[in-house]
Specification:
Elements: H1 2-29, H2 39-48, H3 50-62, H4 67-77, H5 83-104, H6 107-118, H7 123-166, H8 171-187, H9 197-219
Helix pairs in contact: 1-3, 1-4, 1-9, 2-6, 3-5, 4-5, 5-7, 6-7, 7-8, 8-9
């Protein structure tokens, strides 16, 4: 069960890093509200974060990779009682990690390059940079990183919760995971309709909490 414990600690570390990075970006970059602004507003502020800001964005982009050992830990922990559910959970954890890294990594890489070019660009060139900025946000950010990534993440939670139930663990553990997953599924629709905005806010609060709880459950798994 060593890999299961490693997976549990990975979720706990991911939650702590997520809270720290999110708080830093909120304080220095007005994140995530700034993402709704134009390239003219965002790119200069992005580059103004400097080397420290770029390092923070890089760390942020790498945090989802901690889902991989977590998924493998779930697959190992429940390979006998719920092989299909736990195997599916591991697959969705890996998919979520890939999508979220893809979405977040645009900031310290290609978006950063756009920001550096923005200062000296002509008005015509800024139109091109702005279009590129919007396209990257739409496809890498909102579609792949947020929507597909979050649907995969919550599918991981859903199947993990089901595996807990199939394995005869205390019912609250399984149902809590399933509930968190359904809240996350609804929150993933926030880019399609503002009606789910309040649910998305709730999801931002319970996500790190559930990562810690699930991590502890995996660490204590026998």
């Amino acid at each position: 069960m060593k890999l299961t414990r490693i997976g549990g600690w990975s979720l706990i570390v991911a939650a702590v890093l997520f809270i720290a990075v999110f708080a830093w970006l909120a304080a220095t970059f007005d994140y995530p509200d700034i993402l709704d602004h134009t390239a003219a507003e965002v790119l200069p502020r992005l580059v103004a974060l400097g080397t420290t800001g770029r390092a923070v964005w890089t760390l942020y982009a790498l945090i989802p990779l901690l889902l991989v050992p977590a998924g493998l830990g779930v697959a190992l922990a429940f390979r006998r009682e719920a092989p299909r559910a736990s195997g599916g959970a591991a697959a969705f954890a890996c998919l979520a990690a890939a999508c979220m890294v893809t979405g977040l990594a645009r900031w310290p890489t290609v978006q950063w390059q756009l920001g550096q070019e923005w200062a000296s660009a002509t008005p015509q060139m800024r139109e091109v940079l702005g279009d590129t900025f919007d396209t990257l946000n739409s496809y890498l950010g909102k579609l792949i990183g947020e929507f597909v990534g979050e649907v995969a993440l919550n599918s991981f939670f859903l199947l993990t919760g089901w595996a807990f139930l199939r394995a005869g663990r205390p019912a609250w553990q399984g149902y809590a995971g399933i509930l968190v997953a359904f809240v996350g599924f609804i929150a993933a629709l926030r880019n399609l309709t503002p009606a789910v905005g309040p649910i998305a806010d709730v999801n931002n609060s319970i996500l790190p909490l559930w990562l810690i709880v699930l991590g502890v459950l995996l660490v204590r798994q026998r």
